[in-house]
Amino acid sequence: MRILAVDYGQARIGLALSDPTGMVAQALAVLPRRSDAEAAAEVARLAQDHGVERIVVGLPRNMDGSEGETAARCRRFARQLTAASGLPVEMYDERLTTAAAERMLVAADVGRRKRRQVLDAVAATLLLQGYLDARRAKGEADGRA
């Protein structure tokens, strides 16, 4: 089952795609976010183009587990994405994925300009790999859900 992950941000939206077996995540794209409606339509189009069966949207919780305004915006976007794609959309805790992605890129000696271009896709990849690993741990991969 192909799964698409969305790292929703104020300026950009990072996307990552699983392989057909749902085992490995890879960066797909970074989209500029002009409006939520346009972004939802573009993500839905990419999902269809890649044969995606489920979409996972990162939910930015606070460190204490509570949700703030950013999480509320992500939930609103997820609802728009459900309507635009007709696919199941699931929220998944994304705490610290962007920080981890930034550390990885710095460690790999990626320049500041290039980091800005790929950071959101790398964060979406970390989000999706965490989601895939959690599904596998629960025995939900490969249609055993």
From TrEMBL:
It is found in: Cytoplasm. Residues 1-101 form the YqgF/RNase H-like domain. Pfam families: RuvX (PF03652). One of its GO terms (cellular component) is cytosol. One of its GO terms (molecular function) is nuclease activity. The keyword Hydrolase applies. GO terms for biological process: rRNA 5'-end processing. SMART domains: YqgFc. Its EC number is 3.1.-.-. It comes from the Bacteria. Keywords: Cytoplasm, Hydrolase, Nuclease, Ribosome biogenesis. It is an enzyme of class 3 (hydrolase). Its main location: cytoplasm. Gene3D superfamilies: YqgF/RNase H-like domain. PANTHER family: POLYNUCLEOTIDYL TRANSFERASE, RIBONUCLEASE H-LIKE SUPERFAMILY PROTEIN. Belongs to the YqgF HJR family. Could be a nuclease involved in processing of the 5'-end of pre-16S rRNA. This is Putative pre-16S rRNA nuclease. It comes from Alicyclobacillus cellulosilyticus.
